[in-house]
Amino acid sequence: MMCREHIKVLSKVKSGELSLCKECKVYHLEFNNIYLELTQVEFDKFKDYVENIEIDYWEHKYACAKVRRKIPIPSMQPNLVLMFKRQEINELKALVNPVNTDVFGTSLYISDIDYTLILN
Asked: Which fold has domain 4-100?
């Protein structure tokens, strides 16, 4: 079990947070209802995968599917695939690549708002 004093927050977005335990060198990724603990090697592979996802390809491939989330990220468990929307993938990219990200990300864009507006 890790101690809070060893945790360093690396990046934060609206839907999650990426932190690192400086003692055990494990990354903690919280995103919506997903929580992952990743070693450095696992994190590097995950980051590379997320940064290179072909969003347009997946949205086109599943255009007729009746699901809101069309972009898959497979897991090591053969019957488990995590599904995301474009907005979530973009947030996830910002989370795993915090180079130009403010830790407390105060900017809110229209695309960040997941709301269906119905005009009567």
From this structure: Transcriptional Co-activator pc4; Chain A (2.30.31)
